């Protein structure tokens, strides 16, 4: 048979099949918002075209669908249902919990990495791990441990890195910093290991890299065009599958060594006040190495990218909404520098703003389950056994029917109401939660995120730590909006370049603290000013008196600002100019000299090495010089007080003081 004959016979077979399938697919009357679906390939063309913006594309489809549910058919009738309908969400996550699970396909895909960890199992094994983990999660001692870990990472790593960036005006990728922060934290909490990923030189910590490789390659398996391709690569042990095998074996080896050390440590440890999750599991009788290793790896995965994703978008939103940032700052400043648990709990406005931020940018934008049997969703969508039903927090946060016409606005007030008895209003905000099926950012139902409270605790402490000291300013040009991308968890495409600027309210305090080394200098300057004042007075009342009658001289003195009552009030914020203006009437207010000699045994008639010669010319010159000295010192002192130019000026003045006081060279000569 020639090729032409073969093609002709094939077309005779395929054309009727095409029409049959087309008719069949049309008879399903797809929703108006569904993309075009073709026989065999379904909507694969549209799916492929939008592969780099699946989250936004499916969100648009949901938003424009009257039922807020869309059905997408892929290759060979592999059908996926995306829903934003809270009733559907409740149905799959709670009401029919046992009819929808992670599914064997997902389990197989993630098994090499997650094993039988809580993230990757269903049924009784899941129930057991959930019980064991919830018990540990709810202990007060774990919470305390988490607080200590987070506070240490904030104060010893995060803040110093941001401070250096602020001082040098360098651009930082805040997303990277927050990911490193979260990774260090979760590793310390999960198994007491510090990968030291957030260090000033932003190192490639080995454990972090291995974990990242394993997570990326495993989730990449879901994205392969032909799902069995990764299995062939794994069988042949080539390419990414080879790397995954090595990464997983390194991870497990690492975990096994830690488990051995922990077991040894625990034999000598009387209390569990300050220990990680792994130690807790081991201590409560779960000594099977694979069991605890799997749990711990799942926890690291859970805590690794979620909080950092949430915070990255949060700081971006704050940079766009300064009024909200101010409100948060007000709340934070009400609490102590290292807020205790009750204070963090009381940060309701911050809590609301975090919820609001995750409404618009959920760390897990799409998640789903597989149907174990045929079913019908509350909105009438027909589900066949084996179909994936995905709930869509990203789309749900953008639904007008759930959040109103202003859903696009970042408004923490949506989550708040004023506390009070309805008549009187004590002015305090109280938090009003949403039902978790309308806001399934932490999932909902029996498998709701176990780390939710821990995540909020961590995020609020980070927010307080950063905002107390800095303003986060995007380094991109105004009007450039970051792009939301998602690989299981969400990210900001290309990172989040920012400059850290000292917060307005904190500037003086920060500078003050960095100027603490200048306290001595401040004291010295103040003493010198007093001495100078006395000298001027003595000069005027003894050597200077005959000349005070001289109109020139009194003019000079009057404008020179010799009013000690004012000029020595350095606690105020007078500038040299102000003092000069204020002193027109100072003569009468001059404090009476006690006649004592100035410090350092300088005679009233001698300033530094210079002898005073009582001539008109000389005295005018001296008065001018004294005035200059006084203004100069006063300015230096005020600078140090206000801390504004303190650092530069402090260093500058230090040199002068040294020459002036120690070497006794008058300032006009130095200048
Ligand atoms: C803003 C931060 C977080 C968000 C938005 C978040 C969200 C979620 C979501 C959507 C799930 C369901 C995943 C699934 O089953 O497919 C989940 C589960 C889970 N999360 Fe979180 N999470 C966050 C932080 C954390 C942290 C810090 C931990 C603690 C280490 C944690 C521990 C867990 C665990 C153990 C599960 C599995 C629960 C189960 O299957 O029973 N999460 N989380």
TrEMBL record:
Requisite cofactors: heme
Keywords for the protein's UniProt record, in alphabetical order: Heme, Iron, Membrane, Metal-binding, Monooxygenase, Oxidoreductase, Transmembrane, Transmembrane helix
InterPro entries per UniProt: Cyt_P450, Cyt_P450_E_grp-I, Cyt_P450_sf
Keyword Protein biosynthesis included in the entry's annotation: no
Region (Disordered), start-end ranges: 558-600
Database matches in Gene3D superfamilies: Cytochrome P450
Protein residues bound to heme: 449
Listed Polar residues bias regions: 572-596
Superkingdom to which the source organism belongs: Eukaryota
Regions that span the bilayer: 647-667
GO molecular function: heme binding; iron ion binding; monooxygenase activity; oxidoreductase activity, acting on paired donors, with incorporation or reduction of molecular oxygen
Family according to the record: Belongs to the cytochrome P450 family.
Protein name per Swiss-Prot or TrEMBL: Cytochrome P450
Lineage: Eukaryota, Viridiplantae, Streptophyta, Embryophyta, Tracheophyta
């Amino acid at each position: 048979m020639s090729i032409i004959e073969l093609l002709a016979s094939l077309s005779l077979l395929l054309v009727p099949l095409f029409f049959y399938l087309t008719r069949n697919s049309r008879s399903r009357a797809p929703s108006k918002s569904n993309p075009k679906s073709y026989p065999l390939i379904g909507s694969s063309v549209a799916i492929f075209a939008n592969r780099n913006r699946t989250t936004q594309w499916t969100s648009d489809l949901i938003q424009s669908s009257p039922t807020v549910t869309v059905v997408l058919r892929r290759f060979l009738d592999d059908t996926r249902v995306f829903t934003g309908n809270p009733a559907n969400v409740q149905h799959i996550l709670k009401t029919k919990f046992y009819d929808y699970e992670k599914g064997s396909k997902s389990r197989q895909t993630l098994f090499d990495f997650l094993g039988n960890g809580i993230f990757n199992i269903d049924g009784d094994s899941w129930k057991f791990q959930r019980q064991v983990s919830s018990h540990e999660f709810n202990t007060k001692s774990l919470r305390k441990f988490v607080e200590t870990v987070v506070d240490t990472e904030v104060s010893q790593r995060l803040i110093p890195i941001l401070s250096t960036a602020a001082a040098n005006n360098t651009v930082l990728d805040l997303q990277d910093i927050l990911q490193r922060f979260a990774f260090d934290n979760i590793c310390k909490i999960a198994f007491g290991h510090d990968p030291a990923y957030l260090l000033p030189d932003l190192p490639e910590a080995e454990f972090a890299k291995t974990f990242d490789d394993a997570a990326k390659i495993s989730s990449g398996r879901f994205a392969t065009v032909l799902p069995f391709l990764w299995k062939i690569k794994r069988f042949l042990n080539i390419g990414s599958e080879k790397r995954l095998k090595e990464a997983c074996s390194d991870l497990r080896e690492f975990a096994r060594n830690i488990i051995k050390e922990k077991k040894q440590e625990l034999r000598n440890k009387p209390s569990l006040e300050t220990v990680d999750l792994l130690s807790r599991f081991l201590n409560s009788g779960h000594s099977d190495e694979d069991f605890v290793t799997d749990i711990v790896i799942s926890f690291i995965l859970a805590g690794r990218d979620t909080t950092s994703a949430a915070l990255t978008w949060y700081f971006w939103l704050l940079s766009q909404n300064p009024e909200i940032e101010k409100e948060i700052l007000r709340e934070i400043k009400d609490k102590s520098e290292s807020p205790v648990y009750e204070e963090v709990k009381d940060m309701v406005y911050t809590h609301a703003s975090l919820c609001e931020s995750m409404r618009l940018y959920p760390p897990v934008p799409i998640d789903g389950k597989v149907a174990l049997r045929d079913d019908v969703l509350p909105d009438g969508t027909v589900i066949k056994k084996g179909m994936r039903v995905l709930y869509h927090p990203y789309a749900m946060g953008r639904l007008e029917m759930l959040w109103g016409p202003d859903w696009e606005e970042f408004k923490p007030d949506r989550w708040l109401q004023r506390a009070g008895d309805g008549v009187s209003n004590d002015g305090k905000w109280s938090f009003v939660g949403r039902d978790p099926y309308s806001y399934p950012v932490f999932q909902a139902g029996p498998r709701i995120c176990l780390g939710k409270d821990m995540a909020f605790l961590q995020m609020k402490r980070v927010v307080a730590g950063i905002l107390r000291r800095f303003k986060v300013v995007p380094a991109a040009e105004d009007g450039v909006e970051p792009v939301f991308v998602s690989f299981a968890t969400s990210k900001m495409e290309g990172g989040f370049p920012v400059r850290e600027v000292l917060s307005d309210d904190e500037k003086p305090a920060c500078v003050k603290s960095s100027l603490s080394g200048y306290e001595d200098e401040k004291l010295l300057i103040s003493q010198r000013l007093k001495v100078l004042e006395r000298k001027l007075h003595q000069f005027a009342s003894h050597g200077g008196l005959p000349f005070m009658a001289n109109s020139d001289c009194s003019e000079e003195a009057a404008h020179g600002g010799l009013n000690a009552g004012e000029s020595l009030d350095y606690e105020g914020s007078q500038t040299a100019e102000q003092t000069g203006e204020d002193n027109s009437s100072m003569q009468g207010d001059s404090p009476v000299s006690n006649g004592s000699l100035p410090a350092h045994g300088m005679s009233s008639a001698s300033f530094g090495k210079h002898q005073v010669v009582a001539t008109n010319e000389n005295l005018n010159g001296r008065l001018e010089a004294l005035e200059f000295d006084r203004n100069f010192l006063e300015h230096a002192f005020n600078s140090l007080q206000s801390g504004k130019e303190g650092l530069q000026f402090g260093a500058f003045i230090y040199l002068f003081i040294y020459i002036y006081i120690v070497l006794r060279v008058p300032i006009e000569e130095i200048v």
